[in-house]
Amino acid sequence: MKAVGANNAKVLRCIQEYSPVDQASIAKVLGLSLMTVNKIVNKLLQGKVIVKSGKTEGKSGRKSELFKFNPDLYNSIGISIGEGEIIISAVDSDCNAIAKREYRLNRYSEKISTSDDIIAIIIKYFRMFVEEFSIEQEKLAVIGIAPEGIIDTERGRCILGTHLGGIIDLNLREQFQGIFHVPIFVDDPARSITYYENKLGYGSNAANFIYIYLGRGVGSGIVINGQIYRGFRGIAGEIGHIIVDKAGPRCKCGNYGCLETIASEESIIRQMKEGVQEGVITKIVDMCGGNLSLIDLQMLKEAADINDKFSHNILEHVGNHLGKAVALLVNIFNPELILIGGSASILGSYLLESVNRVIKHEALNVINEKTLIKISQYDRFKDSISIALEAFDMLFESTVFLEKLLHRLTI
User: Which pTM does this prediction carry?
Assistant: First the structure.
């Protein structure tokens, strides 16, 4: 890009990252003159790449215009897929969900056991979603995919689909870019939601924090100085495969006693079912009416709320082992905040009680005193919305996408 084009790109990136933002703040962040920023912003407005977004009071008392990327220009679609469901959301560039749908997979005809299975399922439900919500192909800028497994974000690969039939080394980016004809971004649910929390959620005011995802699997996202730490190949944060009990169950990764075998939604429900099958006296038996398929985390919470001893024992067991992993993270990273989210976050205060107790004994006191641990709100669409937002923002690292936008301007 020429110098003027480079400055346009810098301003665009800045507006997308800090939206809504005023011209003075853009100039300060980028080290450009206010006159240069003013000229570029006016061109972006004329090209309808950005729009005004209200005003803010400056230090002098004068109100300054705020700007954001035009939310009507492009859409991003996020896809979250597990063994039993595929959840799809579409968002605009202003982080608003404009469509979302959960599709339950047929356990007989749509069982995921091969790479071909997952590819066929994503294609089927993506097309169904686009048709149902009339998503325009011209406005679709990017697709984000968040599979449950170990993900190589840099290369767009699912290294191991631990909860997707055990598929190995599937390059999702390569597979789908040729089919959908838009950029494909791949990340795991934990790091995607970490991105969401960093931009819009509880972590937006914390420079250093860790998000722990307790869903069908267990993972985490690590934020250092406001940026997600991804490691060598983008797989940093796989705390679900920290061994916390060498005598524990075998994990889908091949090891024994990984945190995921104890603290994931799937593992917690397994412990509940095993107790019921062994004849343990628990209110859960009455709640499920003897039908083990009805047992879920909400049932565990409700039983704990009425002081069911078996439920409290499970929660303490899970919380103690989760606490060991959290204490390790506290000692290594010294975060100011740890967020616990995912579907198992419904267990909230019960987990926090045990986690805090373990941290008190196993984390360094000088560090522990400064680490706040909170439960993050979760809903079943958060995975797909998060990957859609992250995917759209990642477009601004692409020269091709920025040049496409700049073609709208009269330079």
Answer: 0.90
